[in-house]
Amino acid sequence: MDSQLEQQLRELLDKQAITELINAYCNAADRHDHAKMQALYHPDAIDDHGHFAKGLASEFIAKLPEIQKAMAILHHNVTTINLKLDGDRAEGEVYILAFHQVKGENGLFDVLIGGRYFDKYEKRDGQWKFSHRAIVADWAYPAEPSKVQMDHPFLSGAYIGQPGLADPSYNFFSLFKRGEF
Q1: Which of 109, 97, 101, 83 is nearest to 21 (CA)?
Q2: Where is the SnoaL-like domain positioned along the sequence (predicted)?
């Protein structure tokens, strides 16, 4: 294999590893899997999640049980991923749609957010992880009260997703493990 093709293959594999990291973040957030979330960041990584937390990612993750307590539904969807590699470091602009159903003082309300993550990644000991992640909100669509209808006839007989261990994925899959990346 020539050196140019070898370099292209390495970049493709690195981009795939980073894409899997991004997707694992969504799963960890939506399933409230804090051990998995911690495994996605380097120990000295920074996370800027607006008013929720700005600083060490480990401090943000430690706050997640309290932050997510009011979240009845979290559903992150990655759309466009733009990645630039430079050896063992990379940067990414990741477009997301994130749906939140929240338990408020007056009952449930919804917030659909269109935004982006500004990411910096580093490959250490052969593994890509976040070194810095910042949330950018481009728009929000609130609905109060909530418009979600989990009892709609169209959903009859379907598995119903939930945060935490009650999610049906933990009984369905044998290869995906809670707390693992």
Answers
A1: 83
A2: 10-133
